[in-house]
Amino acid sequence: MEAQVPLLRREFGKAKSMTKADGSRVTAVDIAISEDIFRDLQARFPDDQYFSEELAGVSGPIPVTARFSWLLDPIDGTNNFILGIPHCAIGLALLEDGMPVHGCVYDLSRDVMLHGGPLFGLWENDSRMDRGVTGSHETLIGFHRPNDPERLPGASAILSRYKIRGLGSATLHLAYVATGLLDGSVDFNLKVWDLASAVPLCAAAGVEVRFLNGEQFPMRTFDLSMERIVYVAGRPEVASQLAALIES
């Protein structure tokens, strides 16, 4: 992933976008990062499977059949990237039998690489992080407004209780919960590639990631048209409080 950082930084705020069929935006940089990372990985691990938000020529679900697979979001926060807002990330997850076991998140806004998993610990660049989630006198929650109007009462309950940070990058929200920059995170609009790279970081830090509309892992199929994910994350007590507010 480090090899993609110069391209990401060079095109930041300059890349032109196209609109995909689902209404989201994509740039040539998204596609180039996806192709470059997978080309390098496939040369080393030819028997693995490779899944990306920008996977070309795909129609319908793809079964996960290999023991090891890779799940990539080449730029999470594409809108930010296009506009020159630095909260965007490259997120790459290694899955074993469909379970995320190691994640790498390049945080453009802080120019750091977060990586790790339950067997490896949590790392920022070359330094191991021991603090995990620390909490503070005021609980900060990463949050994105739901697209589904039926979810608005639960969203309002979160807004009425907690201080909110909305960065425009779901990957960074969850990664920041793992590192202790945020105490929790809530999202109603995700796809699996938006958070897979940060799930192992949370596991390494003792953070609970709780899915409220169906478990996502192990991932049995990859589907670009999958339903949106609703989840909460934080220390177990914070995750329970967030889930209770959304589901009440």
What's this model, at a glance?
With 248 residues, the chain is an alpha+beta fold. It is built from seven helices and 16 strands. Helix 5 runs parallel beside helix 6.
Task: Give the SSE layout.
Blueprint: H1 5-11, E1 17-19, E2 25-27, H2 28-44, E3 49-52, E4 62-63, E5 68-76, H3 78-83, E6 89-96, E7 99-107, E8 112-117, E9 121-124, E10 127-129, E11 140-143, H4 152-161, E12 163-165, H5 170-179, E13 184-190, H6 199-205, E14 208-211, E15 221-222, E16 229-234, H7 236-247
Parallel strand pairs: 3-5, 11-12, 11-13
Antiparallel strand pairs: 1-2, 4-15, 5-6, 6-7, 7-8, 8-9, 9-10, 13-16, 14-16
Overview of this protein structure:
The protein is of the alpha+beta class. It is 28% helix and 31% strand. The protein has helices at 5-11, 28-44, 78-83, 152-161, 170-179, 199-205, 236-247; strands at 17-19, 25-27, 49-52, 62-63, 68-76, 89-96, 99-107, 112-117, 121-124, 127-129, 140-143, 163-165, 184-190, 208-211, 221-222, 229-234. The strands form four sheets. The chain has a seven-stranded mixed sheet with strand order 3-5-6-7-8-9-10. A five-stranded mixed sheet has the order 12-11-13-16-14, with helices on both faces. The radius of gyration is 17 Å and the shape is globular.
